[in-house]
């Protein structure tokens, strides 16, 4: 059972009914609470889908696409469906297993098989997409790096894990120990490396997929390349956009498998094994949370970039009075960190029309924006205090700075509404804002 990194010559004649692979092999990614990722590299250097590197159309192909070589790679030939335990154990060996041990062996079998199929997807990405794209110059190098930022490192990590599993299956029939393999993958320096590499690989995937979709519509050469490669039998009816999220799907699967494995491992007879699996489970959850946060922060960074591109501060720039620099049309959202963004309604006095807002919760302030066509308007709002006197107005700033002078109070009669009271350079201000739901208000 020899694995090669370069192997599998497969024809491009389409896919057969017994070679289909559905994304459901890996569980969908769950929503998690976030942890700090301040030490992750900045995404400021990443090209945006609308940038010229994504949208410029290259010249026609001067050479054929390099033929993928995947011959002799046993991982590429991995079964689509989870193989039955009878493939690895004799009927006599299976009959000796207790009910609990049988379930444990089934879980180990699933862990080993799904790791192998994940390595398979990574190899297909490398040999059918990344390498041919680079060699035939289908996309600029920076765009390829955005799609597959550190694919070689991720393939190396998962290949080592996969090989260790194969070796253990040969050494032990049935497999009695996996805790040491899990510790080697998830804990210590190796676990830290896995965490950092996984974060780098997945944090900008949403941006890469959006860019690929946008470019594919305008670039016939890219569209033809993808169609030809995706028709390869090795893709098993999956498109590139279906395979790229495999990394996060795999990361989401680990805690589920390790939870199951731990539940079927007897702590009385396998105390050390249980301790190792428990530690690996803890680290698998931490790594998933770390990567989930990295992805969310990258999405928030890109959202601020997009809003900044459409931000209209002209009314603030015309101000002749004093105020902070942020209130003179110089607000650069990309220099801030977005914590949350949501829609709010500014409830005004009776007789005045309410204002729909996009509220940005930054690390140091709340920014209230009005949508107008394709723009986000940043401007002061004049609120009439007394409808009988048109000159009796209060000016409200669109930027509410956090500080000791800022108070938050819920509206007792409306579980979606709240007050913000603040004293800033322009004077005391009271905002009555309404969220779309009680849950949104809590945020």
UniProtKB/TrEMBL annotation:
<protein>
    <recommendedName>
        <fullName>DH domain-containing protein</fullName>
    </recommendedName>
</protein>
<dbReference type="GO" id="GO:0005085">
    <property type="term" value="F:guanyl-nucleotide exchange factor activity"/>
</dbReference>
<dbReference type="Pfam" id="PF17838">
    <property type="entry name" value="PH_16"/>
</dbReference>
<dbReference type="InterPro" id="IPR035899">
    <property type="entry name" value="DBL_dom_sf"/>
</dbReference>
<dbReference type="GO" id="GO:0007186">
    <property type="term" value="P:G protein-coupled receptor signaling pathway"/>
</dbReference>
<dbReference type="InterPro" id="IPR000219">
    <property type="entry name" value="DH_dom"/>
</dbReference>
<dbReference type="InterPro" id="IPR011993">
    <property type="entry name" value="PH-like_dom_sf"/>
</dbReference>
<dbReference type="InterPro" id="IPR041020">
    <property type="entry name" value="PH_16"/>
</dbReference>
<dbReference type="GO" id="GO:0005737">
    <property type="term" value="C:cytoplasm"/>
</dbReference>
<feature type="domain" description="DH">
    <location>
        <begin position="103"/>
        <end position="294"/>
    </location>
</feature>
<keyword id="KW-0963">Cytoplasm</keyword>
<dbReference type="GO" id="GO:0001664">
    <property type="term" value="F:G protein-coupled receptor binding"/>
</dbReference>
<feature type="region of interest" description="Disordered">
    <location>
        <begin position="1"/>
        <end position="73"/>
    </location>
</feature>
<dbReference type="Pfam" id="PF00621">
    <property type="entry name" value="RhoGEF"/>
</dbReference>
<keyword id="KW-0597">Phosphoprotein</keyword>
<feature type="compositionally biased region" description="Low complexity">
    <location>
        <begin position="1"/>
        <end position="70"/>
    </location>
</feature>
């Amino acid at each position: 059972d020899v694995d090669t990194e370069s192997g599998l010559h497969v024809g491009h004649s389409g896919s057969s009914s017994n070679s289909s692979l559905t994304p459901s092999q890996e569980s969908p990614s769950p929503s998690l609470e976030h942890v700090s990722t301040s030490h992750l590299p900045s995404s400021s250097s990443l090209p945006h889908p609308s940038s010229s590197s994504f949208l410029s159309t290259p010249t026609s192909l001067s050479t054929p696409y390099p033929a993928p070589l995947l011959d002799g790679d046993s991982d590429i030939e991995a079964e689509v469906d989870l193989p039955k335990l009878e493939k690895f154990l004799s009927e006599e060996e299976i009959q000796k297993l207790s009910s609990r041990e049988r379930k444990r062996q089934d879980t180990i079998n699933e862990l080993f098989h799904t790791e192998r199929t994940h390595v398979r997807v990574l190899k297909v990405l490398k040999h059918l997409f990344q390498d041919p794209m680079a060699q035939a110059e289908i996309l600029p190098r920076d765009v390829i790096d955005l799609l597959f930022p550190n694919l070689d490192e991720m393939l190396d990590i998962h290949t080592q894990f996969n090989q260790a599993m194969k070796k253990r299956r040969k050494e032990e029939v049935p497999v009695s120990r996996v805790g040491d393999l899990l510790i080697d993958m998830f804990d210590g320096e190796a676990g830290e490396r896995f965490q950092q590499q996984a974060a780098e690989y997945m944090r900008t995937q949403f941006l890469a997929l959006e860019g690929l979709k946008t470019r594919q519509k305008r670039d016939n050469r890219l569209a033809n390349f993808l169609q030809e490669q995706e028709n390869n039998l090795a893709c098993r009816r999956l498109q590139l956009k279906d395979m790229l999220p495999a990394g996060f799907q795999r990361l989401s699967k680990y805690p589920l498998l390790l939870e199951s494995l731990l539940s079927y491992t007897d702590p009385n007879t396998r105390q050390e094994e249980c301790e190792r699996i428990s530690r690996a489970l803890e680290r698998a959850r931490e790594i998933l949370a770390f990567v989930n946060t990295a992805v969310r922060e990258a999405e928030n960074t890109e959202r601020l970039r997009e809003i900044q591109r459409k931000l209209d501060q002209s009314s603030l720039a015309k101000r002749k009075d004093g105020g902070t620099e942020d209130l003179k049309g110089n607000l650069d959202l990309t220099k801030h960190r977005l914590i949350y963004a949501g829609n709010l309604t500014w409830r005004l006095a009776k007789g005045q029309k309410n204002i729909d807002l996009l509220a940005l919760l930054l690390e140091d302030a709340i920014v209230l924006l009005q949508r107008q066509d394709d723009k986000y308007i940043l401007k002061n709002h004049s609120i009439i205090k007394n409808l009988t006197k048109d000159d009796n107005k209060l000016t409200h700033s669109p930027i509410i700075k956090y500080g000791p002078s800022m108070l938050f109070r819920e509206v007792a009669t409306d579980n979606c509404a709240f007050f913000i009271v603040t004293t800033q350079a322009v004077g005391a201000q009271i905002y009555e804002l309404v969220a779309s739901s009680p849950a949104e208000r809590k945020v």
